[in-house]
Amino acid sequence: MPGGLFLPAILLLLVFAGALLTWRLDARQRALASRVSSVAAAERMGAAEPEETRGIRVAAPSGGRLAEVFRRLTAMPVDLDNAHVVPVWAVHTAGAAGCAAGYLIARLGLSRQAALAVGAGCGIVLVRGVFRWEVRRYAGSLTKQLPDMIELMASTVMAGLPPIEALRIAARDMASPSREEFERVVQEVGVGTPVDVALMNLHRRTGVLEYSIMAMTLGAQIRRGGRLVETIQILGETTRQRLAVIARGQALAAEARMSAYVIASMPVVGGLLMSLVKPGYMAPLFHDPRGNTMLLIGFALLGLGFQIMRWMIRGAMSD
């Protein structure tokens, strides 16, 4: 094997090993979810419920310290199978291709060690970007369905049914993806987990803030009593107002986002125009080693600037 292809091959092997590890962890999670579902089904079919049940916490995904580091490094969603738009193996394959492409491009102007670091960084950034996009998309879908779900809960409680029955109706009648998530909440409650703890687990999985507010609200009302219907209605109105503010902020941020895209594209468009006006003017960037280095540094600074603009827009939105 030529020396220039040895390190990309090592990167490919490492990423495929990570994909295999991910597949095994997903298999364990699916088996655990299946066991929880079977226990919950047996509970619903008539198993006697003890007088005092303690909350049952699902163990954190196993796999050792190396697996945990890999999950954190790639921002892979844990216990959130429904969020995946792209198969996990395809994401890791794309990450391996990004590693190899980044290494080969960086090798034009950098040393082997530096090119290896650049290739690894490209693969990690690509995989993290896909996973984070999937999680944000999934959380956005859940957030849009929150007002309807809270209204359904309020109607159920007004009819005299307990909160757990409201969750069961939400798990049966809500659209996807809320239906699947509340099915899991009902399953956890069925094996002894308190309602507020199950909702807090839902918040930790999805990152949707309103679920934590709902968990604390229902937990306090169930333990201490009070006007549960009025509390749920206030929570629903607050959620609608918050979503309206978020939508207004996204509309205002669209102009800043477009400005960021225009600024990021200006160097590329300018280089293409210069090449059309004077052919060969940009050739030293591609044929001279010093030009290769300058081109790599320019693209790195361009990517960093674009990411900083995204962070600024997202930070303003979160505030």
TrEMBL record:
<keyword id="KW-1133">Transmembrane helix</keyword>
<feature type="transmembrane region" description="Helical">
    <location>
        <begin position="86"/>
        <end position="106"/>
    </location>
</feature>
<feature type="transmembrane region" description="Helical">
    <location>
        <begin position="6"/>
        <end position="25"/>
    </location>
</feature>
<keyword id="KW-1003">Cell membrane</keyword>
<feature type="domain" description="Type II secretion system protein GspF">
    <location>
        <begin position="150"/>
        <end position="272"/>
    </location>
</feature>
<feature type="transmembrane region" description="Helical">
    <location>
        <begin position="258"/>
        <end position="281"/>
    </location>
</feature>
<keyword id="KW-0812">Transmembrane</keyword>
<protein>
    <recommendedName>
        <fullName>Type II secretion system protein GspF domain-containing protein</fullName>
    </recommendedName>
</protein>
<dbReference type="Pfam" id="PF00482">
    <property type="entry name" value="T2SSF"/>
</dbReference>
<keyword id="KW-0472">Membrane</keyword>
<dbReference type="InterPro" id="IPR018076">
    <property type="entry name" value="T2SS_GspF_dom"/>
</dbReference>
<feature type="transmembrane region" description="Helical">
    <location>
        <begin position="112"/>
        <end position="131"/>
    </location>
</feature>
<feature type="transmembrane region" description="Helical">
    <location>
        <begin position="293"/>
        <end position="313"/>
    </location>
</feature>
<dbReference type="GO" id="GO:0005886">
    <property type="term" value="C:plasma membrane"/>
</dbReference>
<dbReference type="InterPro" id="IPR042094">
    <property type="entry name" value="T2SS_GspF_sf"/>
</dbReference>
